[in-house]
TrEMBL record:
This is UDP-N-acetylmuramoylalanine--D-glutamate ligase. Belongs to the MurCDEF family. It is an enzyme of class 6 (ligase). One of its GO terms (molecular function) is UDP-N-acetylmuramoylalanine-D-glutamate ligase activity. The gene is murD. ATP binds at residues 111-117. It comes from Puia dinghuensis.
Amino acid sequence: MSKKMVILGGGESGVGAAILAKKEGYEVFLSDGGQLKNTYRSDLQNHGILFEEGGHSESRILDADEVMKSPGIPDKTPMVKAIRAKGIPVISEIELAWRHKGDGRVIGITGSNGKSTTTALTYHICRHGGLDAALVGNIGYSFARQVAEDPKQWYVCEISSFQLDDIHAFRSEIAILTNITEDHLDRYDYKFENYIASKFRITMNQTAEDYFIYCADDPIIKKYIDQFEIHSNPLPFTMQQDINQGGSIRNGQMNINTGSEKLQMSIYDFALKGIHNQYNTMAAGIASATVGIRKEKIREAIQSFEALEHRMEYVSTVRGVEFINDSKATNVNSTWYALESMEKPTILILGGVDKGNDYSLIRDLVKEKVKAIVCLGVDNRKIHEAFQQDVPLMVNTASAEEAVKAAFHFATKGDVVLLSPACASFDLFKNYEDRGRQFKEAVRDL
């Protein structure tokens, strides 16, 4: 008898998991409470996978031997509660992918901020260095779909805390933890410790042959690292101390030492600018050195990398006013990093769905650098309360076009308009990509 696998959720990770499970001989049924995108519906039909949308058939789901839950579905939904109450094992898509990846190995990257950039840069270095690698996880193809359709020797995988919550045997030979700041607390009973524990799960199944690359300057990682049993080789990266192994930046010079490889490089040669990107570059450089990529190749790749769309992406300069799209900044810390790298007077576009934001974190930077705030969201009261004492110019807008016009109105030659919302986008947009694209279109229409 083949094992009955129910897939809950029909987005990229759900459909990828369904395709892999079917290929591996499971009896697969996918259930989505909403409507499937046309491309995903076609994928399921083409692979002969049974599915439902617009609701869940409880009896059928509770007949599963195992459930793969998409990361976007919270544990507190009635369907997930019923599955757990019945004792049916729940796994995440990366767990399923890992189970069937054969000899492939994983570079897993997690953290509250910087993980997409670090993942993309690590992948860029690996490919430039000749590694047979795929870019998977939150950033592109689902890990499961890649394993099903085009297996590789290495998977450079961006992993969210939600994906780590339902792993059992999943193991990253190389794990990167960029930093931990308060985010998604609505999913963790508003307990920061629960979210911290979730991030450290990336080390859970690592062995003495593996590597754990982490930011030694991050106050939360520093405070909590000793509470977790970590068996892998630590490779910290830092700008604040001298270390024997790992990565450090001192006097404008990056030094990487993994034991087998040593690399030196000037930070002025980095393609990515800003202090936060120096941390991301160290992490990616260390990871690449541990998989045996030659230092010349690492150096070349760090110099030639192009920034991601929606992450501090230069859009255009209109009448001396520069526009930057940082729509991927969906929490306050991401916006802190964006503001920290601003060198000109800034008009900041903020707002959206607040995930329990503490705006006091960016108050000093706002006072120092921001001359006007344009709110882009349905409910902007919290932003007004946070900054009304510090920023004389504040206005509410309800579309990307309105926000861009208002910001341009406040700006003078030599200013920067920065879209770095510190919030999720679901009140006015489909997702942060949609928000970023609408922003770019509005800038081009000025």
